[in-house]
Amino acid sequence: MPGLIADHILEQIRQNNDIVEVIGSYFPLKRAGANFRALCPFHKEKTPSFNVNPQKQIWHCFGCGAGGDVFTFVMKYENLDFISAVRRLAERTGVRLEFEETASEPNRDQKELLFKLHEQVAGFFHQTLLKEKSAEPARAYLKKRGITADVVKRWRLGYSPDAWDALIQWAASRKFSAELLETAGLALRRERGDGFYDRFRGRLMFPICDEQGRVVAFSGRILTDAKDQPKYVNSPETPIFQKGKILFALDKAKRAILDERFAIVCEGQVDTISCHEAGMTNVVAPQGTALTEQHARILKRYAEEVVLMFDADAAGQNAVVRSAEPLWEAGLVIRVAVLPRGHDPDSFVKEMGAEKLKNLITKAPSFFVYLLERLSEQHDPRSDSGKLQIARHLADWLVRTPSPILRSTYAQQTAVRLAVPEDAVWQEVRRLQAGRRIERPSNDSECAATDSSPAKTERPSPLLAETLLLRLMLTDERIVDVVVARLDRAWLIQNVPGKLIGHILDLRIGKCWHGADAVLGQISDDEERRFWVELMMLPQPKATGVQAAINCLAALEKRALERQLRELCTQLAHPELTESAMVTLKQQILDLRRKLDHIARPSMDKTKLVSHS
User: Fold this and answer.
1) Tens of pLDDT along 434-485?
2) 245-364: what fold?
3) Mapped to the 3 state alphabet, what secondary structure does 178-194 carry?
4) Lower CB count within 10 Å: N or C terminus of the chain?
């Protein structure tokens, strides 16, 4: 992926985006000696372990192990791919991207045009709402809902003219084709294929933004009581909009979610806007769909807890259970804010006030307690059939609870509610687990047998000589050339530092080595990247200079020779060995021992390098 952008452009973007300034724009950093420190945004912690090194332009969390350069931070924090992160940083400093054309991103220009189109269409709808007489029904509806002019401006609400081709004509005046509007989901092709018409007509328009705040879609609400039209019309999926990956208002809420340590999920745009305007800015909503696995993964990047706050009607409460599924599977803690009957978040906050809604959220029970009570309303927990129905439903959730502490807590709560021994609940769980094992495809057992026999070879732990040599290569350019000239790659084992040493050699030999700081974006393996960053965050090793590197090389050569010597000795002990083969082996063993004798042991002892088999 990095090859899509010219190397000198990448380096310019990296140099123009100081990592302390970039990360500091997302959350505050405090100086701690030569580094800067903060609570890690990628996992929960009470003591700061997230470090930023301004000299080396890298970041690393000693708690969860995440780390990298300015590109990897933006990728992880914003949930972007590499190219999108580069674009974001390029825009930040005004660097013009130069792409090498490849087949891997054929629609890049089209996407840029779609972003530009959506931004301008949002402006068109917004100005129509503010200024056009035809938008009076929309303004009257907003006034009725208590949505002020300031709120309209902050959220860029708009109105789509009640005409078949108003947007198409406006777009044509801006040199946007009807075909592009069709690709954007803003226009539909007539059945006979002769022309297009606007998708959104006579509706209150909500612009939908991605995490970066770019308009990618729209949602239009009907303003009449017509029964032959849907209440909401949403943009279809397009090259820049996948509804299963978009959460309404996440661009505005992500900072608050990080600060509050939890996210609140509502059902619709008006509910979300009302919560934000009432001071609860950690609120988001799925876009025309139930929560998906992608939504859950996105939310988990910002918090470990989610509060579901849907309408109090039956449809809203059914949506709570559906939405809990992907959150539960993602290992998120879930609570449910239960609104009084007849209320949604918008009506509740306007009638009862923000403080009462905040109090309701604070006291929101866990999803499991909510589900237990809901099932107890649907099935009589005092009857035998009711106990069975409730226990079977809850056992399915217990089986999928990753935390043993929470699983035990939920089992106790179920036992108390059903007035049965806790062991009876566990028996129901074990019965469900046993049934699922039986239902598995027969080839599962074959796969398991394959996995266990032969046993998987564990990755060797990093050895001192390789790790120290790698550290020396990262701190002294001269040592890279020494290693290129003297190292036999057969001396390395395929552990993480060994692979990284080989990677540096490949770059140096190919004249692509530009120093340690420029390599991070080229390391695709997560474990290797983490190890690289950890080494760069360490202070300079006590043993430094070319001599220390030579000592490391000697230790690696000694280990390789000893390994060869053991293999030859094993062959020499073979009972069917011929006399000529025996003579050859003995000569090879003698040569290896001579080589071992010539390795400089004193200098190796001085750096306390040890040989590992």
Assistant:
1) 765 444 333 333 333 333 333 333 322 335 778 888 888 887 778 888 888 8
2) Dna Topoisomerase Vi A Subunit; Chain: A, domain 2 (3.40.1360)
3) HHHHHHCCCEEECCCCC
4) C
Query: Is residue 22 helix, strand or coil?
Result: helix
Across 364-368, 453-457, 468-472, 605-609, least confident range: 453-457
What fold is seen in the domain 108-241?
A: DNA primase DNAg catalytic core, N-terminal domain (3.90.980)
Of the candidates 224, 89, 200, 205, the residue with the CA atom closest to the CA atom of residue 157: 205
Cα 361 to Cα 91, 262, 339, 365, 421: the distances in Å are: 38, 11, 10, 9, 32
Which ranges in 226-366 belong to alpha helices (H)? 250-260, 269-277, 293-302, 314-329, 345-352, 354-362
Domain ranges of the chain: 2-93, 108-241, 245-364, 372-439, 464-606
Which 3-state string (H, E, C) describes 422-456? HHHHHHHHHHHHHHHHHHCCCHHHHHHHHHHCCCC
CA torsion sign for 145, 147, 152, 156 is negative
CB crowding 519-548: b at 16 or more within 10 Å, else e: bbbebeeeeebbbbbebbbeeebebeeeeb
CA 281 to CA 250: how far, in whole Å?
A: 10
Query: Average of pLDDT values for 260-274?
Result: 93
Q: In what order do the strands lie in the sheet with 305-308?
A: 247-248, 283-286, 263-265, 305-308, 333-336
Backbone angles phi, psi at 411, to 5 degrees: -65, -40
- Is the distance from CB of 113 to CB of 239 less than 8 angstroms? no
Phi-psi region of 187 (alpha: psi -120 to 50; beta: other; left: phi over 0): beta
Give strand ranges (E) for 138-202: 158-160, 187-189, 196-198
- Are 506 and 476 a contacting pair, CB within 8 Å? no
Higher pLDDT: 509 or 143? It is 143
Place of tokens 């709570």: 320
User: At 564, phi and psi to the nearest 5?
Assistant: -60, -40
Question: 307 phi and psi, to 5 degrees?
Answer: -105, 120
At 533-561, the pLDDT tens digits run: 777 777 666 666 788 888 888 888 888 88
Alpha carbon dihedral 272, 275, 276, 277, in 10-degree steps, equals 120
Does the domain spanning 464-606 belong to CATH 1.20.120.790?
no
Look-up of token digits 């509610």 = 417
Judged by DSSP in three states, 485 sits in helix
Token pair of 346 as six digits: 């918008």
410 within 8 A of 333, measured Cβ to Cβ: no
3-state secondary structure 64-78: CCCEECHHHHHHHHH
